[in-house]
Amino acid sequence: MPKLLSKLSNLLTFWYPFTEKLQFLALLFARIAVGQVYLKSGLAKWDGFFKFNGNTYDLFQYEFFCPDEIRKGALYLCDKTEQDYTNETVRFIIDRFANLAGIMEVALGVAIIVGLYSRLAALGLLAMTFFIQFFVFPDAASWWGSHAWWVVCLLAVLSFGPGKFSLDKIFKLDAK
C-alpha cells in the first residue's frame, strides 16, 4: 500500500519542479493587477498634467471623512451635528491629503507596473491599502471585495521581488 501511495503521489506531483519557472509570470501579473488599480484611481484625480480635479476634494471631504451615513469604525473628521467642517485647518489637511494620494497613486502605480523600485512601491501601496481599509472603509465587504486581493499581490512583490520582467532586474536594483 505505501508503494502505491508513493507512485500515486509521484504521478500527481511530477509537475511541481516546473512551477518555479512560472514565478516571473505570477509576479508580473501581480504587479500589473494591483498597479493598474492604483494608477487608474490616481489618474481620475487629475484633469491634466499638474491640474488637480476639484471634485476629488469633495470626494475626500464628504465621501471619505464626512459621509452622510457614518461608517462604523471609519475616521470621521467633520462636526457630527453640522455634518460639515467647522475647522478650516482640517479641510486644508484633507485637501493636501487628496493631493498626496493623487500623486502617490500615479507614481507608485507606474513604479510597480514597470518594476522600478518594486519593493518600495509595494510597501507604499500596502500602507495606502491598510489606511483605506482601517480608516475609510473598515468593513468586511471592502476587505474581501478588493483589499485582501491587493494585499496578496503586494505581499508577493514585497516578499519575492519584482520578477524577471522588471526594470529592477534590468538595472540590477533589486538585491535578490
Short structural summary:
The protein is mainly α and 176 residues long. The protein has eight helices and two strands.
Description:
The mean pLDDT is 89. The protein has 8 helices and 2 strands; from the N terminus they run αααββααααα. It is elongated and about 75 Å long. The chain has a two-stranded antiparallel ribbon with strand order 1-2. A hairpin with a 2-residue loop joins strand 1 and strand 2. It has one domain. The protein is mostly helical and 176 residues long.
The Cα radius of gyration reads: 21 Å
Helix content: 55-70%
Q: Spans with pLDDT under 50 lasting ≥5 residues?
A: none
The main sheet orders its strands as 1-2
Largest sheet, described in full?
Answer: 2 strands, antiparallel
- Helical region count? 8
- Average pLDDT reading: 89
Q: What structural class do you assign from the helix and strand content?
A: mainly alpha
Distance between the termini: 43 Å
Topology pattern, helix = H, strand = E: HHHEEHHHHH
Number of strands: 2
Provide tags for this entry.
8 helices, two-stranded antiparallel sheet, mainly alpha
What's the topology here?
Layout: H1 2-13, H2 16-19, H3 23-43, E1 46-48, E2 51-52, H4 55-64, H5 88-114, H6 118-136, H7 140-160, H8 167-170
Antiparallel strand pairs: 1-2
Helix pairs in contact: 3-5, 3-7, 4-5, 5-6, 6-7
